[in-house]
Design goal:
There is one protein chain. By secondary structure, this protein is mainly alpha-helical. The chain contains 8 helices and 3 strands.
Length: about 170
């Protein structure tokens, strides 16, 4: 989609799938930096690439500090734009996957006691029951009790499955 102004862009609210916002910093009405700021305020999780032929160094720094993936100086060849779009979308997908993984881990830990949370984290690192029990100064039986409660709360069968899921998320 192409918009004539920032105001027109914000009237459109049907962004689906992989998308990237290419913003000219010098637009009539809202500037590119104003658009980026409003996107941040509205929690629009879309990657941004800036372009301009007249922006000064401060504009570039401000855009990048606020999360722009790149700033293209006009005129630029189409292959540079294509490359920037591909890199931006790939980076955005990686960052989104990392954020979702972190949110999932936080959700998993919220319903657990502090002790269960410790045991969950140490178990995912691959430590044995005896080793964790020794680290936490508890008996292996107590350790087993806490581990089984963690698995029940997470509706999982084993820590091996949890570890496999964690490894899959990181690849």
């Amino acid at each position: 989609m192409r918009f004539k102004s920032g105001e027109e862009f914000f009237l459109f609210n049907n962004v689906a799938g992989d998308a990237c916002v290419l913003i000219d910093n010098k637009l009539p009405g809202m500037s590119g930096l104003d658009i980026q700021e409003r996107m941040i305020d509205q929690q629009m999780n879309l990657p941004v690439i800036f372009m301009s032929g007249t922006s000064d160094y401060q504009d570039v720094v401000e855009a990048v500090k606020k999360g722009a993936y790149s700033f293209l100086e006009k005129p630029f060849p189409m292959r540079k734009l294509q490359s920037s779009l591909a890199d931006t979308l790939a980076n955005h997908q990686r960052q989104t996957a990392t954020r979702l993984s972190e949110e999932d881990a936080k959700f998993r830990l919220e319903g657990q006691t502090p002790r269960q949370s410790e045991i969950y984290k140490l178990s995912l690192k691959g430590y044995s029951i005896k080793h964790i029990a020794k680290l936490l100064c508890i008996t292996p039986n107590t350790m087993e009790f806490h581990r089984s409660n963690v698995l029940k709360k997470l509706a999982e069968n084993s820590f091996s499955e949890l570890m496999a899921q964690e490894i899959d998320k990181r690849q």
